[in-house]
Amino acid sequence: MKRARDFANKKGSQEADPSPSSASSSHDLKQCPIDKDELADPSPSSASSSHDLKQCPIDKDELGRSTWNLLHTMSVYYPEKPNEDQKKTVFQFLDALSKTFPCDFCARDLRKDLKKDPPKLDSREEFALWMCQLHNRVNKKIGKDEFDCSKVFERWKDGWKDGSCDY
Q: Are residues 35 and 74 in the same domain?
C-alpha cells in the first residue's frame, strides 16, 4: 500500500501544477510494475518468472475481482470535494461500464442497480461507501460474504492497521 500512497501523493502534486512540464512523458511506464519488454512482446516466453503470468484470457471470477478492485480504488482516491466535471466523468464511466462490461448478466444487473440507486458523488467518503454498498448487494445476490464498509479505506487506500500491506 505504500506504493499506492506514494503514487497518490505524486498524482496530487501533479494536480497542483497541471502544466505539461510538471509531468514526465513516460511516467506511465515508470509507474507500471510490468517489465517494459513484456509490453513490447506479450508472448508467454517474454513473461518474467517473478510475475507468474498465465498469458491467457481471464475468467469471469478474475474479471470481477479486478473490476471491483479498480472501482473501489477509484472511489477511495476520488476527490474529497469533487467539482461538477469530476462527478460527471465518474457517472459517465459507471454508465459506460454498465453498457460494455463483458459479462452480459453483470452489465444488466449494474444498469438496474445504477437506476435504482444512482452513485453518490458529492464526496470521497460518500462515493466509497456507495461503492461498498453496491458491491455488498452483488455479493449477497451471488452468495458471497458482505464486506464491512467501515474498513473500505483501510482495505483499498491506507492498508491494514497491522502493517501487513506496507512493502
A: no
